[in-house]
Amino acid sequence: xxxxxxxxxxxxxxxxxxxxxxxxxxxxxxxxxxxxxxxxxxxxxxxxxxxxxxxxxxxxxxxxxxxxxxxxxxxxxxxxxxxxxxxxxxxxxxxxxxxxxxxxxxxxxxxxxxxxxxxxxxxxxxxxxxxxxxxxxxxxxxxxxxxxxxxxxxxxxxxxxxxxxxxxxxxxxxxxxxxxxxxxxxxxxxxxxxxxxxxxxxxxxxxx
Length: 208
Known about the structure:
Strands 1, 2, 3, 4, 5 and 6 form a six-stranded antiparallel sheet that branches. Helix content is 45%, strand content 18%. It has helices at 43-59, 76-88, 92-110, 144-166, 177-188, 190-194, 203-206; strands spanning 12-16, 19-22, 27-33, 65-72, 115-125, 172-174. The chain has seven helices and six strands. The chain is an alpha+beta fold.
């Protein structure tokens, strides 16, 4: 029986300095974007935002990927506080009401009726964008100097996207190394993530 490492199925080689390095040496950066209550805006504002969004897309000379993550709202801490409050109640009526409220909120969360959405924008950059050609094996050797130059240009693209979204009233910030790791982990462990559990990330990674 041949054992296969999970890493062999991953598309990326490593994550460092807020950058995802793919196995083909391409780079990816991720922006986390705020939401916009578009449907609640007056028709005039909706039209203005639509035109601005079209201009933003037309201004891009590189592709972007939009990722939307839907998950149950994590109310673990809130539920723990309610449960502790119920245990401390000396008045039987108030205790029963607190316990009933606890069960009500827990049921809402369990049934998935309370959901949150997070919005992410993936920005790509390849070494071919710098005019470099791949070697015989189809991969360019990513030296430290080359990585820093590519990272600078990737961050310039991310800043360009963030400024474009700002005109629409959307705030976008780049994810750090630790935040990218947590995002990937949450994709593969949705149940643990929904109850507030995240893996411990080594200190040497959080500082990169």
